[in-house]
Every structure is written in structure tokens, then in C-alpha cells.
Amino acid sequence: MKIIHERLGAKLFLANLVVILVGLVILAITIQITIPAAFNRHMGQMNSSAMNGMGMGQGQGQGLGRTLFENFRASMFESLGYAATASVLAALLVSFILSRRIVAPVQTLTTASQSIADGHYDERVAVNGSDEIAQLALHFNQMAAQLEQVESMRRQLIGDVSHELRTPLTAIKGSMEGLMDGVLPANDETYRQIHAEAERLNRLVNDLQELSRVEARAYELDLRPLDVSSIIHSVTKRLSPQFESKRISLDLDLPAHLPHVLADEDRAIQVLTNLTGNALQYTPEGGKIKISAKQSKDEIQIAVQDSGVGIPPEHLTNIFDRFYRVDKSRSRQAGGGSGIGLTVARALVEAHGGRIWAESTGEGKGSTFTFSLKIDG
Ligand SMILES: Nc1ncnc2c1ncn2[C@@H]1O[C@H](COP(=O)(O)OP(=O)(O)O)[C@@H](O)[C@H]1O
Ligand SMILES: [Mg+2]
Asked: What per-residue confidence (pLDDT) applies to 331?
């Protein structure tokens, strides 16, 4: 009984056996019930034609018929017995073949999933045909690929984070050692440097926290109909000190009657602040920034265009990846962040069902960042 519970092959054999036995039993019962009448009818026809010629008596004929019938029935059931044996053997063979075809791929899947559970994420199984088991194998492989990707992202993230943390930490440690050894003068300048590095660490940790919150979707979107112009105005007002200190001119291009978008106000402001902040950061003094909004089908596209350093085309698709910076040393000198701002912006825009993309005609020719939000209604 245990083997039947635990083995698919045994179940298949039992199933085949049951089908054959039921067939045999029905066959036997049907024969038992119908054979006397059928026999009599056929013998009756034979008797009447044969006995007419031989002149046999009625009683003689009946006795002969009965033994004939008994023998006939016995031979009938004897061959049924052979048939039963042959069928059971056939059942064994069929279930053997079936279980090899059905059980083998299931066993492969079991082994593969065990191997994945042990941390071998590169394990895959062969997909043969297109039946349910092949589908299962296909989905199994997809799941394995997904797990592999998550695992490699996790490794990459830990590597990136430790690398990012090390830079400011090394600087702080170096300055402190310089102070202790008397190589660095204990003056305002040194303290300011150390403070700036600590501030950098602080920003990085805040950015990481925000990133993990946004990527884990650990926040609620408070979607309401919003006026895009008022969002743009509140961002430019907030950033106006930076515009002034870098003497960057601001140009707004906002059509008078734009439909409202459906968005979370704080999040929309956060995205636009990120993009405008970048534009300010990567545009030299005296440059220009233009913010525009326009309707395109069922969405409003908000674009931030600058006359700054631009982005080489090969970097355009990567700059939304976390920690990605076109020029790490430049970004650092320019007081740049850790390359998380655009990652957060993209996650927020996509959570709204919108898109975000960057365009640039090349280095030194400025860049345009555009994101879209769905129109309310
Ligand atoms: N307006 C822009 N002009 C030129 N390069 C930009 C602009 N915005 C972003 N980038 C590039 O994309 C990278 C990623 O941006 P972001 O995620 O905001 O990180 P960061 O913290 O460095 O600003 C930046 O390091 C920079 O190289
Ligand atoms: Mg930034």
C-alpha cells in the first residue's frame, strides 16, 4: 500500500490494471448472461437443418446439445483466462512505458528543484513537447531564471553599497589619521572636509533607505487629480535659490488648458525635483533650463531640458540603474549624489503607470529628461 502512495509508477500500473480487470469482469458477466440464449439460437438453427437429414430423435439431440454447451462455455472461459493473463502483462508493459514517459520528467523536476533549494540557481530542466508537464518544466525554468537574477542583483547590491560606503569612510578615516599624526592642521578647513564626508555618508544612507522603500513599494500612492502647472511651479519655487546661485535661466513652456493628471502630489514633486536638481547640477553656470508640459494621447509629458554637459548615447539606457553615474569622479566633484536619484524617479513614475526616459544629442549638448503621467478620467 505504501509503495502505491509513494510511487507514481505504481499508481499508473494499478490504474491500468483496474481498467483491464473491470473490462474483464464486464466481459465475463455479459458472456455468462447472454451465452445460453445465443448458443441455443445458433444450435437450434444448426439442429433443424442437420437433424432433418440425419433423422435423429428429439431427446438424443437435446443431451448432445447440453454437453456441447458445457464444453463450449468451459473453453470460452478458459480462453478468457488466457486473455486476462495477457492483459495483465500488457498492463504491466504499458504502465512501464507510461511511467517512464510521465514519471521521468517529474523526477528530473524534483532533482532540479532540490538543487535550486540548495542554492544552485543555474539549474535548468529540458522542455520536451508541450503537454502539462512540459508547461511545468517551462515555468520551472522561468522561476529559476528569476531567482538567479534576484540573487545576482542582491550580490551586486551588496557589492555596490559597500563600495559606496567605503569612499567617504576612507576619506574620514584618512583625515582623522592626518589630524592625529599632526600632518593635517586642526583648523576649520579640515573639520569642514570631514563634516562634508560625513554628510555624504548621511545622504547615501538616506538615498538607500528611500530606494529600498520605493523598490519594495512600501508606500501608499495617494492618487488625486492634479494640475501639472502647479506642480512645476512649486518645484521651481523651491529650487529658485539654486537657479540664482548658478545664474541659470529658467524657461517654462506650459499650455494654458492642460487636463489634470491622476497622481500622488508629493511623489510627482519628488520626481520633478530630482530631474530639475540633476539639470541644475550638470549644467555649468550661466546655462539654461526649460521645463515644458504637453499632452500626448491619454498622458501628459513633462520634460526638463538643460544646456548642460549632456550624456553620451551609450549611457542613456543605463543612467536609471542604481549607482550608475556617467562619470563618477565628475559627479563627486560636482557635489553629485550616489546615482540613486534617477532610479527612485523611475520607480515612482512606473508605480503611477507612467514612463520616464532620457535624450541627449551628445556630450556638451545638454540633455532632456521626460516623464509621463496618465490623464485623470
Ligand atoms: N541633466 C543631466 N545632465 C547630464 N547628466 C545627467 C543628468 N541627469 C543625470 N545625469 C547622469 O545620470 C547619472 C545618474 O543620475 P542620478 O541617479 O540622479 O545620480 P546622481 O546622484 O549622480 O545625480 C548622473 O550621475 C549623471 O551622470
Ligand atoms: Mg541626482
From this structure: 55
